[in-house]
Amino acid sequence: SSSSSSSASPSAAASGNGTLTIGTLLPQTGSLAFLGPPEFAGVELAIKDINAGGGVLGKPVTLINGDSGDTSTNVAAQTVDRQISQGVDAIVGAASSSVTLTVIDKVTNAGVTMVSPANTSIKLSDYPDNGLYSRTAPPDTLQGKVLADQALADGKQKVCVLALQDAYGEGLANVFDQVFTAGGGTITETIIYDPKAASFEAEVGKCKATNPDGIVLIGFDESKKILQEMIKQGVGPQQVQLYLVDGNLSNTLAEGLPAGVMNGVKGTTPGAAPSADFKAQLKTINPSLADYSYAAESFDAVNLIALAALAGNNDSGTSISKNIQAVSGSEGGEACTTFQACATALKAGKKINYEGQSGPIDLDANGNPSKAAMGVYVFGPDNKYTLKDTITADVPQPEPSSSS
Questions:
Q1: Rounded to the nearest 10 degrees, how much is the dihedral formed by the CA atoms of 301, 304, 305, 311?
Q2: Which sign does the torsion angle of CA 161, 164, 170, 176 carry?
């Protein structure tokens, strides 16, 4: 069900006023706040580059930063209301798929385009969004497959999955289960937990009782508590191979734990490895960055929005979303890797294919990357992770969703 071919016009279709205004809906507070800094830095770096090169449609791009919080608060809805009243044409966010699902109708009904740098839930793959929602992170059909392939390649046969209770956690667990089982592995138990629980003793105990040779932990900031409980119960990373995902792959996960506790832990995160040059540029925006997860996707989201406004010669959300698929390269076009090079090609009347810092992107009719890069990382004795492998592949299409 292609959402972009929907003929329903947004109730308040914006017409461009000549100034491209972008809002951010990214985590400054809540359970994903640790993911915020690289995302904000990516957005701000892109806008700095664009404005240094003359802006969009002859004017500087305006940025309105906003906090998404998490699903336990109403922060996201308040931010979106404020930004819509301030006339944003596009919103970059949210980071959490569940947060996006709470505000996507409000955003798209206002005729505002929404580009998430980090949503991976399959629920958003064909969401009825008037063609106004897209993302630069691939849906979890790819991450789940790459993670399961890694566990199978490691010779794991009996894996226990711990996943937080939300669209992201349950969706990713489901894909991992399917691929791991199809590859000959056994899922000993899939335990869906409440991320706000006071203790994870029972969940970890249940997992331990199945005597797994691998544990997959799909979560956010609460993963720290779960990791400590696993160590306490004797199923820590040095006893049982641990696999992490983008929501918890962080150098801060083992803060305060002994050196070496994370050695050999593996994890996946969408996106190509950030180049040294890109990292250095991000550091000019925020010198204290510790992680770079989704910085590239955030940078690419802004560039795609700006290039789509140029391609349509109109900064409105509706015009941006009509042109974003084309500039992402889904229709071929001349490959270009910077805003300036792409803008120059557009001005010369050429079709373009923006090749991002995060990967090829190539948005499909539903606004999902059809090709994407996935990084596989491994932790060393210093409890810090390094890139082991980058897999660039076509994004597998989700199983048809049951009409629930």
A1: 180
A2: negative
- State the pLDDT at residue 399: 64
Q: Which residue has the tokens 């892109």?
A: 46
- Separation in Å, CA 83 to CA 65, 103, 269, 318: 9, 12, 30, 16
The number of C-alpha atoms within 13 Å of 182 and in the hemisphere containing its C-beta is 10
**pLDDT category of residue 290 using cuts at 50, 70 and 90:** confident
Max Cα-Cα span within the chain:
65
Half-sphere exposure of 93 (CA within 13 A, CB side): 35
Phi, psi dihedrals of residue 395, rounded to the nearest 5°: -80, 120
The single-letter code of the amino acid at 310 is L
pTM (two decimals): 0.87
**353: β partners:** 335
Kindly tell me the number of DSSP H helices and DSSP E strands found in the chain. Answer: 11, 15
Q: Residue 385 pairs with which residues in a beta bridge?
A: 379
